[in-house]
Specification:
By secondary structure, this protein is an alpha+beta fold. It is built from 9 helices and 5 strands.
Length: 201
């Protein structure tokens, strides 16, 4: 699956959840898109539910199939509960942390900031959105990029304080990744165990 660039509301309506944030279209049309969306829903099979949860996770974090499979294999080899480790790896991606810190208003916007070399990790420019940030590392805005309107507007309404695994500094426009979050701390409504069961077949 190539990276999705179509209407976000269509994906949100497909899953019945605002996976890209507040969505006025979803509130008005809380049913799947398409000519049969408002009609009777078929009962979803167990496989269909598992596949849906995997797709939801991929769309939420903006990860392609091969990347997602590699992350799952890494989680499966690690100690701990596979599904929770998988979500921890997704949360550790640089683009996701830029979003969580409030430097960008969305994950796609965060991905663009990283790709355009506006983000530094421990003072060094990193332009790879999938870069895995390690606990203790500091993620911030490049000095010459701190005056960008898109960044200043997003930071002014920062959500960083909501996440106990991040420590934000307004003076330096940077945040420290304290630790990989616990499953109970991650707000995403994803049934990770269903993803594990899907890949285990």
């Amino acid at each position: 699956m190539a990276r999705y660039r179509g209407p976000k509301s269509k994906i949100a309506r497909k899953f019945g959840e605002p996976i890209y944030g507040p969505d006025k279209h979803l509130e008005r049309k809380n049913y799947p898109p398409g000519m049969h969306g408002i009609g009777r829903r078929r009962k979803q099979s167990e496989y269909g539910f598992q596949l849906s949860e995997k797709q939801k996770a991929k769309y939420t974090y903006g990860v392609l199939e091969r990347q997602f499979r590699n992350l799952f294999d890494k989680a499966n080899r690690s100690k701990g509960i596979t599904g929770e480790v998988l979500l921890g790896l997704l949360e550790s991606r640089l683009d996701n942390i830029v979003f969580r810190l409030g430097i960008a208003s969305s994950r796609p916007a965060a991905r663009q900031l990283v790709s355009h070399r506006h983000i530094v990790v421990d003072g060094n420019v990193v332009n790879i959105p999938s870069y895995t940030v390690k606990p203790g590392q500091t993620v911030g805005v490049r000095e010459k990029s701190k005056s960008l309107e898109v960044i200043t507007e997003s930071v002014s309404s920062s959500r960083a304080f909501r996440y106990p695994w991040l420590q934000w500094d307004d003076n330096t426009l940077s945040g420290k990744f304290l630790n990989i979050p616990l499953r109970s701390e991650i707000p995403e409504n994803i049934k990770e165990q269903s993803i594990v069961e899907l890949y285990s077949k």
